[in-house]
Amino acid sequence: MRAAFATAFNDADPLSVLEVGDAPEPAPQDGWAVVEVRASALNHHDLWSLRGVGLREEQLPMILGCDAAGIGPDGSEVVVYPVVYTEKGDFTILSEHFQGTVAERVTVPAYNLVPKPAELTFAEAACLPTAWLTAYRMLTTRGRLEAGGAVLVQGAGGGVATAAVLLGQALGARVYATSRDAAKRERIEALGAKAFEPGARLPERVDVVVETVGEATFDHSMKSAKMGGRIVVSGATSGHLPQVNLRRVFALQLEILGTSMGTPEELADLMALLARTGIRPVIDSVVPFSEARKAFELLHSGDVFGKVVLDHTS
């Protein structure tokens, strides 16, 4: 079957070790199911894999990709939940210990198949299992954002942050977002949020801060949270060792919460929210699977806003 996979590691030039070609069919396993992939979406995790982060040489070749939607064994339309739990109680995501989704077929535990609402296309649904699920959990389960509340999204333009902008509004909140890039601030405002430069004073203190940037924005996140506010962290692209003003933490009774990914039930709830409200993932490009390398090149360029999706039917 056709697939895109890592053949080696190259930190300086990750695309040089990307191969698109024939790969072995998924091996059948008890309790696992094979999905005919109709669409997959790329994440920066795929580029890190090509750099060697989270993989060992003995695992190569490794098919890339965490996100996919397609047809399950019974012919139903499904979305692939990308987290696999091990016998030790740990978890991993597809393309780390198990082959990924940028392939004609992928095999996953049967419990990882979540029904796709008819209202969502395969391309839209493929955007959801990683970045959108993470953002949804940050706002709901961890952030406890209520309708009528306020949320600050740091570093809007990234996958999780852009999802949080749209989801915050769908949940009935006022959304503020920051970005260093003026063009991205314009695009964020076009999505309905109020955009600011990093560190800017907001019109109000917020209930929830979505923090994926880390060191460069964390002080601003602390200053922007209201009494009892929640700062929810799922990434640290600018550095993971910020200074934390503990007096502000206890004086304002702030909560600093970590999170990663979500559950199959949260993925189902997320899709139900999209079906009900009509909001959809921001898709930068849909690339034919026959031109998979072009999709990786787009992601690597950094000149994208929203998800890069592969159409496996072409």
Task: Please outline the major beta sheet.
Answer: 7 strands, mixed
Radius of gyration: 19 Å
Q: How does the overall form come out from the CA principal axes?
A: globular
Q: How many DSSP H or I helices? A: 9
In oligomeric terms, what are we looking at? single chain
- Enumerate the spans where pLDDT stays under 50 for 5 or more consecutive residues: none
Question: Helix content range of the residues, please?
Answer: 25-40%
Total strands: the figure is: 18
Q: Class by helix and strand content? A: alpha/beta
Q: Strand-residue fraction?
A: 25-35%
Which key terms come to mind for this protein?
single chain, 314 residues, alpha/beta, 7-stranded mixed beta sheet, 6-stranded parallel beta sheet, 9 helices, 18 strands, 27% helix
What does this structure look like?
The structure is a single chain. Strand 5 (67-71) and strand 6 form a beta hairpin. The strands form 4 sheets. Strands 3, 5, 6, 9, 10, 17 and 18 form a 7-stranded mixed β-sheet that branches. The protein is of the alpha/beta class and 314 residues long. The relative contact order is 0.15. It starts with a strand and ends with a strand. The chain is built from 9 helices and 18 strands.
Outline the fold blueprint.
Blueprint: E1 2-6, E2 18-22, E3 32-41, H1 44-51, E4 62-63, E5 67-71, E6 77-80, E7 83-85, E8 91-93, E9 105-109, E10 113-115, H2 122-126, H3 128-142, E11 150-153, H4 159-170, E12 174-178, H5 182-190, E13 194-196, E14 206-211, H6 218-224, E15 225-233, H7 246-251, E16 255-258, H8 264-277, E17 283-288, H9 292-301, E18 307-311
Parallel strand pairs: 11-12, 11-14, 12-13, 14-15, 15-16, 17-18
Antiparallel strand pairs: 1-2, 1-4, 3-5, 3-9, 3-18, 5-6, 6-10, 7-8
Helix pairs in contact: 3-4, 3-8
